[in-house]
Amino acid sequence: MNFFDWQFAREILPRLLDASLTTIGIALAGFAIAVVLGLFLAIARRSRQRWLSWPITGLIEFIRSTPLLIQVYFLFYVFPNYGLNLSAMQAGIIGIALHYACYTAEVYRAGLDAVPRSQWEAVTALNMKPWTAYRDVILPQALRPVLPALGNYLISILKDTPVLSAITVVEIMQRAKNIGSESFRYLEPITMVGVFFLILSLGLAWCVRRLENRMELAR
């Protein structure tokens, strides 16, 4: 029976911490792109122009209905056959960002739909330009209630980064597997990776709850 080797755990800790920075960087980069792109997708989906709203709706539903793993496989392994060459890191970040942009788009759409109809009528009556209306009137009201939900997607993105090990991105899970294959000890590296995700996820969840409480008090 294999018992946890604390000495071995201390030896591999620096290597795992180094890879954890890559994991955190991927999660933050993917989330930053997703929250911005998701907003534009939501606005485009709500457009009255069918030539814009229908293709965007189809794209969102297609991406939300297919696994992230398949999407990053296409980006890294299939698209180079058609001239789009991406590094593993680029493919991973783009894949996560696009995948979660479609989910955040639905969150934004719910927020936009929750804005009272009178507000939309007011900006129309004032003949405000669309960009000005969204920036000054609509978005401040739509974004406040959906911020906690967006925070939850950051946690989901973090937990999905191990998927990128399938396309050779050396994030913390891939580093743990490499250590295991070198030493034939998987208990310590995999356990430490699990603890890393647990601590970080709990910390982010605490931040999201704090944000929710502040939103409630601000109402």
Question: How many individual helices?
Answer: 8
Question: On the 0-100 scale, what is the average pLDDT?
Answer: 89
Note the beta-strand portion.
under 5%
Q: Fraction of residues in helices?
A: over 70%
Cα end-to-end separation: 56 Å
Radius of gyration: 21 Å
Contiguous uncertain segments of 5+ residues? none
Structural class: mainly alpha
Give the SSE string: HHHHHHHH
Shape: flat
Oligomer: single chain
Q: Note the main sheet.
A: none
Based on DSSP secondary structure assignment, what is the total number of beta strands?
0
What's a concise summary of this model?
The protein has 219 residues and is mostly helical.
Please, could you describe this protein's structure?
- Helix content is 81%, strand content 0%.
- It is mainly alpha-helical and 219 residues long.
- The N and C termini lie far apart (56 Å).
SSE map:
Blueprint: H1 6-45, H2 50-64, H3 68-78, H4 88-114, H5 117-125, H6 130-160, H7 172-183, H8 187-218
Helix pairs in contact: 1-4, 1-6, 1-7, 1-8, 2-4, 3-4, 4-6, 6-8, 7-8
Structural descriptors:
about 220 residues; mainly alpha; 8 helices
